[in-house]
């Protein structure tokens, strides 16, 4: 596992639920690739998860990844909560079904392929790649409406 990749991910939603988008900035050495997409009826949390899934799935081989997200939901979910959810049959500590289980499972599969350091970055605080990921996520929303 020698490739070191930096990923910035972000999600956006106009209404919650409503039309949403996700964006990814992928950096490897001097190369930069951006990805974005959207869904007509979704939530912000689903778009945050989708950004991480799509960013990791874009990697063609196992990598060392520095993943930056402005979503505490994603960062804490993967680093703190998921172990308990899996142990409890995808139920929360309150014995309720985990919301967005389908995407958490998909993210878990992608995470298993890589060695990832998860970082939280404050959104809209001037970090250039976080701002670009946000712009891409909003582009995903805009393209749904043809704006």
UniProtKB/TrEMBL annotation:
Required co-factors: Mg(2+)
Binding site for Mg(2+) 1: 10, 48, 70
Alphabetic keyword roster: Cytoplasm, Endonuclease, Hydrolase, Magnesium, Metal-binding, Nuclease
Cofactor note text: Binds 1 Mg(2+) ion per subunit. May bind a second metal ion at a regulatory site, or after substrate binding.
Cellular compartments annotated: Cytoplasm
Domain of life: Bacteria
Chain ranges of the RNase H type-1 domain: 1-142
Reactions catalysed: Endonucleolytic cleavage to 5'-phosphomonoester
Keyword hit for Manganese: no
Residues involved in Mg(2+) 2 binding: 10, 134
EC number(s) on file: 3.1.26.4
GO terms of molecular function: RNA-DNA hybrid ribonuclease activity
Major subcellular site: cytoplasm
Enzyme class (EC, first level): hydrolase
InterPro entries per record: RNase_H, RNaseH-like_sf, RNaseH_domain, RNaseH_sf, RNaseHI
HAMAP family: RNase_H (MF_00042)
Chain's role: Endonuclease that specifically degrades the RNA of RNA-DNA hybrids.
Subunit text: Monomer.
Family the entry assigns: Belongs to the RNase H family.
NCBIfam families in UniProt: PRK00203.1
Protein name: Ribonuclease H
Organism: Marinobacter suaedae
Lineage: Bacteria, Pseudomonadati, Pseudomonadota, Gammaproteobacteria, Pseudomonadales
């Amino acid at each position: 596992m020698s490739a070191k990749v930096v990923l910035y991910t972000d999600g956006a939603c106009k209404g919650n639920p409503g039309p949403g988008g996700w964006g990814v900035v992928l950096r490897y050495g001097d190369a930069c690739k951006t990805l974005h997409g959207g869904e007509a009826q979704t939530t912000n949390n689903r778009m945050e998860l989708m950004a991480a899934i799509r960013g990791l799935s874009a990697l063609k081989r196992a990598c060392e990844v520095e993943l930056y997200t402005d979503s505490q939901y994603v960062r804490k979910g993967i680093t703190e909560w998921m172990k308990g959810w899996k142990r409890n049959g995808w139920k929360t500590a309150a014995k309720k079904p985990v919301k967005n289980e389908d995407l958490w499972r998909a993210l878990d599969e992608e995470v298993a392929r890589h060695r990832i350091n998860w970082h939280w970055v404050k959104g809209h605080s001037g970090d250039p790649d976080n701002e670009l990921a946000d712009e891409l996520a909003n582009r995903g929303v805009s393209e749904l409406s043809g704006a």
